[in-house]
Amino acid sequence: MSESNTKGRQMKPWDPCGLVRSSTPAFAVIILNQPIENVEGYNAVVETGAPHKLQQSPTHIVGDLDSIRDEVKRYYEEQGTAVLQDTDQYTTDLTKCLKFLHEARVDDTERASRLENTVLIGGLGGRADQAFAQIHQLYEAVEKPELECGNIYFLTPKSMIFLLEKGVNTISTPLPSCITENVGIIPIGKPAVITTKGLEWDVENWKTSFGTQVSTSNHIKASEVEITTSERFLFTMELVSSSE
User: Exposed, middle or buried, 30 (CB in 10 Å: 0-12/13-18/19+)?
Assistant: First the structure.
């Protein structure tokens, strides 16, 4: 999603619930060590238009492939999935997937125009060190042009997580929708000075950092939340339970 300019300010728009609307442009999905159709987990890239299509076979499996079983590899190749090995031991499989997706977008401008967002599924529910590594990769992806893949959203069974940019961010927050009112501002990395509009506990020129003060369990109170920040930080949103 492109940046807009309102009254001379650069604004970064986010529309997380747009991912579940049928009118939303197609997005890429990267599945991280997540079992699909009861087959062993892997790192994969799927291009799709709506979450209900995630049960389709991935278009690509990308990684060092050091743990994939022969029968699993053969199964997906028979489904038409391209299996691509990247033996670089200095990058994670998530970095490999982002790099592949970025290069695919560069080589195909039509695909790039269709894939405005990237959704990451899995990768945060296992070992703690690996979960922090995935968050690190999220920061790295916005710093390195060779990993640029549009707006990137981490999706867990209960939350959606994304990295707000420096400056003004506008987040579409229609309630009720795919999200609840619960959100969090997590300043991993550098301390940030933030101003918020549209939350129950709005702040102005408020310094946030680990060891001082953070805003968790805040509540959405408007159809759009605006956050101005001096540094990037993680924004978390609770997803509506499928049982609700």
Answer: buried
Tokens at residue 111, please?
């695909």
Rounded CA gap, 116 and 114, in Å? 6
**CA-closest candidate to residue 163, choices 181, 195, 189:** 189
Please answer whether residues 194 and 235 qualify as being in contact, where contact means their C-beta atoms are separated by less than 8 angstroms. no
- CA dihedral angle for residue 105, residue 106, residue 111, residue 114, rounded to 10 degrees: 80
147 and 141 in contact (C-beta within 8 Å)? Answer: yes
pLDDT of 53: 41
130 Cβ neighbours under 8 A, 6+ residues apart? 123
Q: Which of 154, 102, 145, 152 is nearest to 123 (CA)?
A: 154
Q: Would you tell me how many other CB atoms lie within 10 Å of the CB of residue 209? A: 16
Asked if 223 and 170 touch (Cβ cutoff 8 Å), the reply is no
Neighbours of 164 (CB within 10 A): 21
Q: Which residues contact residue 134 at a Cβ distance below 8 angstroms, ignoring those fewer than 6 apart?
A: 32, 92, 94, 120, 123, 124, 154
As beta bridge partners, residue 86 has: none
pLDDT, tens digit, for every residue of 108-161?
Answer: 665 555 567 888 987 787 788 888 888 998 999 888 998 888 899 998 888 999
**DSSP H stretches of helix in the chain:** 70-78, 93-107, 109-114, 128-143
